Amino acid sequence: MLRPKIPTMPQPTGLTTPPAAVEPTTITPGTSMPLPTPVAPASSRPAVQLTPGTALALVGAGTAVVLVLGAVLVSMLLAVAITGASVAVCAVVLRSLLASDAKRR
């Protein structure tokens, strides 16, 4: 009833080049040369030097980042906790209203 069509591979059009023949190369044993030792390249920029004032500024900035990030995460956790508590209170109130409505009937 439903037969899939199997695609046929089209023949290449245009000019095609035959594959090139690969000729093996011969290796002649010779004396081994010692490898030169690598030399460290000279740096074009000066090295970073930390003064006590710069180190103190970096420590202060890191501390400020940690404190701000902690305050943001704690506030998000508090918002989730307050939302969960309010949803729980709403669920209790709705259950109470539905139970009292069922008792009247």
Automatic annotation (TrEMBL):
Keywords: Membrane, Transmembrane, Transmembrane helix. It comes from the Bacteria. The chain crosses the membrane at residues 53-72, 78-98. Residues 1-44 are annotated as: Disordered. This is SpdD-like protein. It comes from Streptomyces huasconensis. The lineage of its organism: Bacteria, Bacillati, Actinomycetota, Actinomycetes, Kitasatosporales.
